[in-house]
Amino acid sequence: MLDFLDISKPFDRLDNPVTLEIERAIIRWVHAEARLLDAERYQEWLDGFIDPEIHYWMPDMETRRRDDPRGTFKYGESAYFDDNWRELEIRVKRYNEPSAWADNPATRHVHLISNIEVNATDDPALFAVCSAFTNVRNRNEADQDIIHGRREDVLRAVDGGYRLLRRRVLIVQNVLLSKNLNTFF
Q1: pLDDT band at residue 1, thresholds of 50, 70 and 90?
Q2: In terms of domain of life, where is this protein from (predicted)?
Q3: CATH number of domain containing 41
Q4: Quick one: pLDDT at residue 88?
Q5: CA–CA separation, 24 vs 30, rounded Å?
Q6: Sheet harboring 126-139: ordered strands across?
Q7: Is residue 73 part of a domain?
Q8: Is 101 a domain residue?
Q9: Which domain holds residue 70?
Q10: pLDDT per residue over 57-111, tens digit each?
């Protein structure tokens, strides 16, 4: 049995597809989330899409040999994000502060989400969702960042909808050349 809530463990076995109705509802959820993030409607995202027990983790990727047993990342080591609800709430509030110079003028975002796979878990209220993304951010005249990666999410069915309970963001870049990471994935 896989522990889908353990952020340190990858989704290495996903062979339990859901019904087409559930799959379609979750794909719509993923696209609606991307639209909110593109529009910087972060408070609405936090309040309507994020579970209070969220674990949001984006490890720092290291280049290692294929035969290195440590792999490219390990939970508890360097991470860009390792957030719970309170930390996400602080980040969201920061966007609205006049002193948030990295967000004024506003950053323009595009979240392209693809390769969405939805699987059932041993808990009928939890769903394992894998996707690939491209996050394009543009600010001012010349600042543009393009970040590619994969997401491993656990969604919880709540009141006829879904909430993000766990997100692991695995980027393909070894070194981020961005001036900041004022974005969510």
Answers
A1: very low
A2: Bacteria
A3: 3.10.450.50
A4: 97
A5: 10
A6: 79-83, 50-59, 161-171, 143-158, 126-139, 108-120
A7: yes
A8: no
A9: 20-96+107-171
A10: 998 877 677 777 666 667 777 888 999 999 999 999 988 777 766 666 778 889 9
How much is the pTM?
Answer: 0.89
Q: Which of 81, 89, 11 is nearest to 50 (CA)?
A: 89
Which DSSP string corresponds to the chain?
A: ---TT-TTS-------B--HHHHHHHHHHHHHHHHHHHTT-HHHHHHHHEEEEEEEEEEPP----TT-TT-S--TTS-EEEEE-HHHHHHHHHHHTSTT-GGGSSPPEEEEEEEEEEEEE-SSTTEEEEEEEEEEEEEETTTEEEEEEEEEEEEEEEETTEEEEEEEEEEES-SS---S------
Structural domain contains residue 179: no
Q: Into how many domains does the chain fold?
A: 1
Confidence of residue 35 (pLDDT cuts 50, 70, 90): very high
Residue 74 lies in a domain: yes
Within 10 angstroms of residue 37's Cβ, the number of other Cβ atoms is 20
